[in-house]
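Two quick folds needed for the group meeting slides. Do the first one here.
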Amino acid sequence: MKIQILGTGCPKCEKLAETAESAAQALGIEYEIEKVKDITKIMEFGVMITPALVVDGEVKVSGNVPSVDALKQLLA
């Protein structure tokens, strides 16, 4: 599973990366996390508000940082 965190590196972006990693580890799934900080690449996803979470090319969350439990449901 490829997990991408879209954002410029703000505290919320870092928190989303940590939360996504915790959720993936709790589920015991194989994953790769990539942080996308280039605004042009972020816009290619159609995202206007960061942070955003992309799973296997599909935007799942934009503009907020869900809880670990909420992310586990999205990743499962």
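Then this one, please, same format:
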Amino acid sequence: MATVQLRTRIDSDLKRKSDAVLKKLGLDSAAFVSMSLSQLVNRRGLPFAVTESDEDYFTAEYGLTAADKVKAGRRLKRESARARRSGTLREITTAADLAP
């Protein structure tokens, strides 16, 4: 299979930290990028969730202090867990879960 060179610029600190993690996994940056792009193609989407934490969302949306941010995140997690237990909030993991 023919290969091409992919050039990109990233923060040097991020590169150093990611290289250290990849080394522990027995990988290098090129292998990781190839694996990630393969999963992108296979899944036809990002191979990981792209989300903002609950606490960060509340901080940005409502201008909460650090303490308020943690408190709001804990409350949301408690309320979500309570709703799951009562059946008013269901997790959707397959298309069958969308049926009423």
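Slide caption for protein two: The longest helix spans residues 66-86.
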